[in-house]
Model the fold of this input.
Amino acid sequence: MASPYIEKILKARVYDVAIESPLEAAARLSRRLGNEVLLKREDLQPVFSFKLRGAYNRIAHLGEAAAGRGVVCASAGNHAQGVALAAQRRSIPAVIVMPETTPLIKVQAVIDLGAEVELHGDDYDSALERALTLARERNLVFVHPFDDPDVIAGQGTIAVEILRQSGGKLDAIFVPVGGGGLIAGIAVYVKYLYPGVRVIGVEPRDAAGMYESLRAGRRVTLEHVGIFADGVAVRRVGEETFALCRETVDEILLTDTDEICAAIQDVFEDTRSIVEPAGALALAGLKQYVAREGWRGKRLVAVNSGANMNFDRLRHVAERADFGGGREALLAVVIPERPGSFLRFCEALGKRSVTEFNYRYAAPEAAQIFVGLALSQGRAEKEAVSAQLRAAGFAVTDMTDDEMAKLHVRYMVGGHARGLEHELLYRFEFPERPGALMKFLQAIGTRWNISLFHYRNHGSDYGRVLAGIQVPPATRAEFLEHLRDLHYPCVEETANPAYRMFLSS
Done:
């Protein structure tokens, strides 16, 4: 089955629109992993994705009569841009059906290329049904995003470049998988010439269509797919791509959101470029595989497949990258509800950097706090910290792998504290350096009880804390004098309407 594809790949017409993307060394990551990591920079293509290769090759092979009727496709974005650009180059009409969940940056990019856009459904499969209906109703040529020999061959040109650029001296190539067109094209060509090079696909755990299909020995349809990595959010892989992958792909790995976000950060730190979640999938899988196999001194390629990232999604990526990289832990800790407890807790942590601290008074006996800690040694350090806190008499629950805690609870710690008296609310700033939070708590002292506390390290020069402090009227003058002596910039917020509405007693 593979042999006919070799000729199709070598004859594919892609360079009218595509560039030969560089194969770049990720020097920083290579040193960290103890392997030579190379990034195939398909994020540098004119539409910031590999998809224009397959789309253009398909449209370039259309006869004049078929092309003149126009083309239609369904896509979450990157294939859409490839089809729109290819249609623009051939001066033919293009209709693009995109899920309503498609990031705005991808929708606008397709419009800018002159295509007609229709938003339909919540996922790729809904958009696909609509596109096929339009193809019948308007006599348009349907351009499949992955399950088409010309599309597969177009994507296979990436393998031609990788092998030429590397001299074929590789141990493994890691490829993101959605419908399977990219990995099918790469695997067919690589295995034909270098059968010893492992070709490993990578999918999100919540969009594991190829993994489940290969495991079942037949194509399966997923009931639901996650859309964080929207470029690979496909419920059912292609018939042709499945057959090719069964024959040529060595393994499919599954990754989670945190691992993908950590890989986005890794790419940024080596290249100063930001790839989309699907674009970082391959690198996330590469890191997972290296850790699992204990590989050292290997030569590995990860395909950076795309960079069409919505800017506002970066907030989520930044929050989750440290979890995926084993650089942050979230702990729920019970401490006594009395003056000085926060300080004793920080002293038990020692010099470790606190990244987040959420607390609201709830009961007079014990306080539940939600704390984030920076880690330098991964899971082993997290376990050591938990044991250290328990030895100091604190009850500890690890929340690092709790999805609800990471998505919601960390932002919801708070609320009205019934029966709480004499609370004043202040915003403080202090220079952000190791040990700064403990120094701040030491400065506040142990005479007054802290009844609300929120801190989050935002990577800036100054840390910002919102603190509620119980100050009986008889000691208020002394407390205000104490604040002046601290020399920490602060603003009283006791009269703030947000505090009155959502936090005060």
About this structure: The longest helix spans residues 149-166.
